[in-house]
Each structure stands twice: as structure tokens, then as C-alpha cells.
UniProtKB/TrEMBL annotation:
This is Chaperone protein HtpG. Molecular chaperone. Has ATPase activity. It comes from Phytopseudomonas punonensis. ATP binds at residues 37, 41, 83, 88, 102-104, 125-130, 177, 342. Residues 560-634 are annotated as: C. It is found in: Cytoplasm. The gene is htpG.
Length: 634
């Protein structure tokens, strides 16, 4: 044991303490993942060394055969991992293993529900990391030395995973990191070659550098060599460099967990090698569920970037558009230079063509998933549909393709499930129908009974029901699909085109003519509240309805803008009435102008309520209604 100097005891950062506590108490069902996490860190450390050595080859002095060794001691009840990667300086050790919580830790802690089962899956998503060592160990020691520093600048870190850790400066002959786990009682099973080999095979086979275990010794104890022979237990070639046919589904899934920190399997993946003008390999995954920070601006996203097998950076977000930010994976380029930086990535035209090719790949993969595994696609849509809806606005070139991937609730499906594609819709068009009809609103419950749907129900025409917050905004970008334009059924003067017969149209004109007098009286009664009054052709059961002007903002957009503190231009609705409704007939026959006024206002307010809007003067509405009720019962 070498001499320790500058020894001190430091407290973990509060967030780290909370995380540690949580981890130790909620990951008991899947303890073996500690090995995956520590091996993953060792592999990252080797990646970093390779990268830094591009500029400073001297960092590789003292061993350029990069590897990870895992050993164990049954008697001492320890498991030891050793890598010859980048290592850590004293400051780095203090920062990374104790005082700096991983980015997002605070967010993560905020998202905990207290429900142990849910929380433990959240921990999985978060990526458990180094502290997972404490799932099986009651004491963890780290010996490390930063590449490039002298042997006298080694670091010894030790902790029992409670409130604090010790740190000291020690001699360490080789660069890199050695981690010694002192197993808790009850966890001795991990001090076993067979067990370790299995866990490594299971979780870390894809790691692109050799992971070695001591070879089993079968001879007599007295002949046992002091230094064991080592044996590589994983495949040790970067998974994406292997031909597709040589990679099993399980291996693809494990690799996904390595790059994504997800616990669960991905829904789908796409592995491609591109040769020709550009040369690169990509392996892209669709996760099975949304991360907790999907909607946070600063949340990490992007692919792991390699250049000629050398790891360059995590979260390279230049390769995919924002609306595909949920995709995980790796891209390995042969064209980029090894000293590529984020700044260069943002300008390099090579990146643009890779981005558009990768975007197509993802959209193709989603198309395939939708076609071949509709149940899986449903799960995808639940998790990421809202994000994909940002697509048509962001990616003009792929608008039609993205539109084909969208799913909607519709009058042809019960329960408001978003399962109808535009392709489905178009395949069910009525004879003479050349438009795609939709209605937006606050909730499925509200839109499904909207009076705007009456004529469509009568004629048996399907209407898409859009109730997500961003739908109205989305529809302002989607103008056409398969050559059919979109029509908001609550907007403008609904023209059903050839869905109305010539006789229908003639009859409508005649009715409109005969009601000109009523239209004028209503205009006077409703005054400033309306932009226009007209006879409706879209109502069968309701007396009246409010339509939005062709160019006006809809309710959803108005509410979003208002909520964000913006001034929204006041727009007036169009009041349409159903000439055949008994209430309208009564109104038409009402000689008393006061009563006519009250009734008109009640009808107007009711139409606003049915559209999901709130009343400007609810008290006036109640008063008028009560007055009428009193008269009725008198
Ligand atoms: P993550 O790997 O997601 O960054 P971890 O908790 O697994 O989070 O590790 C925290 C940090 O500790 C790493 O980012 C790295 O800086 C450092 N670290 C952990 N293990 C090693 C290692 N074997 N060699 C060098 N640095 C390491
Ligand atoms: Mg890690």
C-alpha cells in the first residue's frame, strides 16, 4: 500500500446523496446492471483517451492496447474493474464522483413520484451511472490517474455511499482507473468468474474494446501462477461495424441500452452502411417510451458521433431535425475530419446531406413500423406523436411523408383514440368528396358532440377530430395530403362541393332568400358581437352555430397566444342559424323586439358554449335564460 498524502473527507452534493439513497433502495431487482454501468464508463474513458491522443499521441505512452479487466477475490469478497483509459485528476475525481451531479439530476429528482416501481424505471431512463456500484457494494474504492500526469499524481477515492467520501493523493504506476467493490454481505455471488462472464456477455458484448477475465485455473493450488492468464470474454468489435446478418436482435437491444441509458427495449432500429460519395454507418433506434425531459429545451439529444471508429462526441444534434429528437443511436463517418468540432459540424455541407439522408431513414423506419407492427406504432404514437407533429412546420421537404405518419381521432373511430392515418381517411372518401375535413377543439368529449359535425353525420362523411394543443398550429402548415386539401369544418362558409347535389344547392338558395328578413333582424339584435349572420346548411339538430372567419385565429391558437401574454386581434364569429329548427321558427314568428333580442342572445351564447368558448358576460346569459323560464312557467 502506497503512502497517502493530502487526505481529506468531503461531503457528497445534496442531489448526489438523494440519488444514492434512491438507487440503493429501488434497484434491488436488477442488481447486476452495476457491471454494465462501470464497464460503460470504462469504455467511455477509453474513447476519450483515443480522442485526446489524436492531438497528443504521448498520452498513449505506457500501453496503447486499450482494454478493460474485471477480476474478483472470493475470500476478500471483492470485484475489481480496471481500465487504461483517460483516468481522472484529483479535481476531476472530486467533481465527477461527488460534487457535480450529472446534468439533469435536479430535473430528474423533481420528476419522481414516490411510487417505487415507477421511480425505479425513471432511474433507468436517467442512467444510473457510477453510483450503481453501491447497489452491491458497501464500500467502493477508486484508484485513478489522469493520462499525461505523473505516477505520483494518482488519486485514491473511497466511500461507503453514505454522506461523504475520502480522497487522497497516491502513487499509481499506470494511467487509467481501477475500481474495487467491497461486496455487501448477500452479494457474494458476484465474486465469481462464471457469474461475471455471464453478466458481461449479456450487457457488454457490444463494447468495442476487449473485456478480459482471469482464465479459470484447473491445476493444483501450488502450481497456480501469481499473475493470472487473461481471456477476452466479449466480442470486442464495435457493434455497428459488424454486418447486419451477424448481429442478433438481443445484441441490438443491449447496444441500444448502452447508448440510450434506457432500461427497456427499443421499438425498432435501422442499421445502415452508406458507401459512395459519402461514407458512413448509422444505427438509429426508436425508443419504447418518452424520456421525462422530452419537452425540455435543454434536454440532451442527438446521436453519438464517431469518425473512423474513434469516438468524437455525445449528443451530436446536427444530424437529425428537432422533431426527431427522440431518436437514439450512433453515426460513424469516414468523411469528417478527426478533429471535427461542434462549430465545424454546424457549417459543414457534408452534415447537411447526412442529415437529410438520416431523416429519410428514420421516416422510412417509422413507415415500416406503422405498416408491419401497428400495435408497436400505437405505442410510438402515444409517446412521440406530439413531437412528430412539429415536423410539417420544421421540415418542408418531408411534409407529405410526415403527414402520412400522423394519427388522428375521427368520427369513424370510437373513444377518441388517435389511430386514423390520412391514408386511411383518403381510402374512405365518399363519392364526390375531394377534401379532408377536420375539427379542432379542447377535448375529444367537446368536439365529438359539436354541432359542426351534424351535416357530416347526416351525410356519413368522416371528420378528423383534433384535440392536441398544437393541432391548430399543425393544420396551418398542412394544406394538402395526396392532392386533397384540408377543410376546417368550423371555419368560413362550409362548401361541401359536389357532396351537395344541384337540387340541394337550389333548395339552400331558396331558403336563404326566404330568410333574408330574419337575417336582418338578427344582425340588428346581435349587433357588434357578430361579423355576419347567415342561414346554415351544416345543422340538423342544433338551432345555431358560430363559425370562424376564413382568416381568423381559431380558439386554440388564440388561447395559446393569450397564455403566452401576446395581444390577440379580436375577431368576431359568424352566426349561422338552422332555418328548420323549431326555436328558429319561433324566433322568426316573434313580434316583440325585446323578446326577440333576448332569444337571439341566448342562442348566440349557447352556440359559443357548444364551441367550447367561454361567455363574455355569463351573468347576462343566465338572467335572460331565467327570464324566459319564468315566462314559460307563468
Ligand atoms: P456518465 O457516465 O453518464 O457521465 P457516471 O455516473 O457513470 O455518469 O459517471 C460520472 C463521471 O465520472 C463520468 O462522466 C466520468 O467523467 C467519470 N468517470 C466514471 N468512471 C470513469 C472511469 N472509469 N474513467 C474515467 N472517468 C470516469
Ligand atoms: Mg456512465
Amino acid at each position: 500500500m502506497s503512502v497517502e498524502t493530502q487526505k481529506e473527507t468531503l461531503g457528497f452534493q445534496t442531489e448526489v446523496k438523494q440519488l444514492l439513497h434512491l438507487m440503493i433502495h429501488s434497484l434491488y431487482s436488477n442488481k447486476e446492471i452495476f457491471l454494465r454501468e462501470l464497464i460503460s464508463n470504462a469504455s467511455d474513458a477509453v474513447d476519450k483517451l483515443r480522442f485526446e491522443a489524436l492531438a497528443k499521441p504521448e498520452l498513449l505512452e505506457g500501453g496503447s492496447e486499450l482494454k478493460i479487466r474485471v477480476s474478483f477475490d472470493k475470500d476478500a469478497k471483492t470485484v475489481t474493474l480496471e481500465d487504461n483509459g483517460i483516468g481522472m485528476s484529483r479535481e476531476e475525481t472530486i467533481a465527477h464522483l461527488g460534487t457535480i451531479a450529472k446534468s439533469g439530476t435536479a430535473d430528474f429528482l423533481k420528476n419522481l413520484s414516490g411510487d417505487q416501481k415507477k421511480d425505479s424505471s425513471l432511474i433507468g431512463q436517467f442512467g444510473v451511472g457510477f453510483y450503481s456500484a453501491f447497489i452491491v457494494a458497501d464500500k467502493v474504492e477508486v484508484f485513478t490517474r489522469r493520462a499525461g500526469l505523473s505516477a505520483g499524481e494518482g488519486v485514491h477515492w473511497a466511500s461507503k455511499g453514505e454522506g461523504d467520501f475520502e480522497i487522497a493523493t497516491v502513487e499509481k504506476a499506470e494511467r487509467g482507473t481501477r475500481i474495487v467493490l467491497h461486496l455487501k454481505s448477500g452479494e457474494e455471488e458476484f465474486a465469481d468468474g462464471w457469474r461475471l462472464r455471464n453478466v458481461i456477455k449479456k450487457y457488454s458484448d457490444h463494447i468495442g474494446l476487449p473485456i478480459e477475465l482471469p482464465k479459470e485455473f484447473h491445476g493444483e493450488e501450488k502450481d497456480k501462477p501469481a499473475e493470472p492468464e487473461w481471456e477476452v470474454v466479449n466480442r470486442a468489435s464495435a457493434l455497428w461495424t459488424r454486418p447486419r446478418t451477424e448481429v442478433t436482435d438481443e445484441q441490438y437491444q443491449e447496444f441500444y441500452k448502452h447508448v440510450s441509458h434506457d432500461y427497456d427495449n427499443p421499438l425498432s432500429w435501422s442499421h445502415n452502411k452508406v458507401e459512395g460519395k459519402l461514407e458512413y454507418t448509422s444505427l438509429l433506434y426508436v425508443p419504447g417510451r418518452a424520456p421525462f425531459d422530452l419537452y425540455q429545451r435543454e434536454a440532451p439529444r442527438g446521436l453519438k458521433l464517431y469518425v473512423q471508429r474513434v469516438f468524437i462526441m455525445d449528443q451530436a444534434d446536427e444530424f437529425l431535425p428537432l422533431y426527431l429528437r427522440f431518436i437514439k443511436g450512433v453515426v460513424d463517418s469516414n468523411d469528417l475530419s478527426l478533429n471535427v468540432s461542434r462549430e465545424i459540424l454546424q457549417k459543414d455541407p457534408v452534415i447537411d446531406s447526412m442529415k437529410s439522408a438520416l431523416t429519410k431513414r428514420v421516416l422510412d423506419m417509422l413507415e415500416k413500423l406503422a405498416k408491419n407492427e401497428p400495435e408497436q406504432y400505437k405505442a410510438f404514437w402515444k409517446n412521440f406523436g406530439q413531437v412528430l407533429k412539429e415536423g410539417p412546420a420544421e421540415d418542408f421537404a418531408n411534409k407529405e411523408k410526415i403527414a402520412g405518419l400522423l394519427r388522428f381521432a375521427s368520427t369513424a373511430e370510437g373513444e377518441g383514440e388517435q389511430v386514423v392515418s390520412l391514408g386511411d381517411y383518403v381510402s374512405r372518401l365518399k363519392e364526390g368528396q375531394d377534401k379532408i375535413y377536420f375539427l379542432t377543439g379542447e377535448s375529444y368529449a367537446q368536439v365529438k358532440n359539436s354541432p359542426h359535425l351534424e351535416v357530416f353525420r347526416k351525410k356519413g362523411i368522416e371528420v378528423l377530430l383534433l384535440t392536441d394543443r398544437i393541432d391548430e398550429w399543425l393544420m396551418s402548415y398542412l394544406t394538402e395530403f395526396d392532392g386533397k386539401s384540408f377543410i376546417d369544418v368550423a371555419r368560413g362558409d362550409l362548401d361541401l362541393g359536389s357532396l351537395d347535389s344541384e337540387e340541394d344547392k337550389k333548395a339552400q338558395e331558396e331558403v336563404a332568400k326566404s330568410k333574408e328578413g330574419l337575417v336582418e333582424r338578427l344582425k340588428t339584435a346581435l349587433g357588434e358581437q357578430v361579423a355576419e349572420v347567415r342561414v346554415s346548411h351544416r345543422l340538423t339538430d342544433s338551432p345555431a352555430i358560430l363559425a370562424i372567419g376564413e382568416q381568423d385565429l381559431g380558439l386554440q391558437m388564440r388561447q395559446i397566444l393569450e397564455a403566452s401574454g401576446q395581444k390577440v386581434p379580436d375577431s368576431k364569429p359568424i352566426f349561422e342559424f338552422n332555418p328548420n329548427h323549431p326555436l328558429i321558427e319561433k324566433l322568426d314568428a316573434e313580434p316583440d323586439e325585446d323578446r326577440f333580442g333576448d332569444l337571439s342572445h341566448i342562442l348566440f351564447d349557447q352556440a359559443a358554449l357548444a364551441a367550447g368558448d367561454s361567455l363574455k358576460d355569463p351573468a347576462a346569459y343566465v338572467q335572460r335564460l331565467n327570464k324566459l323560464l319564468v315566462e314559460l312557467s307563468a
